[in-house]
Amino acid sequence: MAFKFPKATTPQEVAAKLINGEKLYLLDVRETDEWTYGHVEGAKHIPLGQLSERLHELDPSKETIVICRSGNRSGLACELLSEKGFNVVNMTGGLNAWIDKLV
To answer: Active site residue: 27, 29, 46, 68, which one?
Structure first.
């Protein structure tokens, strides 16, 4: 995989949309221990290693913003999902650059 995905956004843009009340479809692909430590409220959690087997849990008709710690794993997830026909956006910088609260 060579990080080929059509769209990207920043943590600041995502946080601003959530603060403004926009309903976003968020997918967190970090490992379970990372998720437990803190995640964006409302995000769906599917670790990257389980993504191929759990595609049925996602809605390909919705734009999905994919999140990880730094933006690398989410980039891989975006490439995989894009190849399967999903409308995905990579959150570059990941939660390392997150500016809002985590739950």
So the answer is: 68
User: Rounded distance, CA 33 to CA 99, Å?
Assistant: 21
Query: Between the CA of residue 87 and those of 18, 76, 98, what are the distances in Å?
Result: 19, 14, 22
33/66 Cα distance (integer angstroms):
18
Q: What are the chain's domains?
A: 7-97 (3.40.250.10)
pLDDT in tens, 68-87: 999 999 999 999 999 999 99
Residue 78: active-site member = no
Q: What are phi and psi of 64, to 5 degrees?
A: -115, 125
93 within 8 A of 70, measured Cβ to Cβ? yes
**Two tokens at 12?**
């600041």
